[in-house]
Amino acid sequence: MQILKISLPLQYINNLKQKEIMTTQITKGTILTATSVCDSNCKWTANVLERKGSFIIALVNGEIVRKKVKVWNGEEYALLLGTYSMAPIFKIK
After folding, report:
1. Among 68, 80, 75, which residue's Cα sits nearest to residue 92?
2. pTM of the model as a whole
3. Separation between Cα atoms, residue 75 and residue 26, nearest integer Å
């Protein structure tokens, strides 16, 4: 069995570290927007009322909901209308 040693250029390693840095963060007072997967003319907005740790409390469609904040590619998002196959993804725009 052979062990291969691979040396990566420093620039590549720095790029990996930069991708781990958060670019957008949801805070109190932030307005989140989402577009329907099925109809691009259907849009939702939500106002973040409170942020506690990895959860937010938001006002969407006249209802107050508490949902977990998730991260993808350094951007935070939330599934405020539920978790299902065509669920809109609320992000900062």
Report:
1. 75
2. 0.74
3. 9
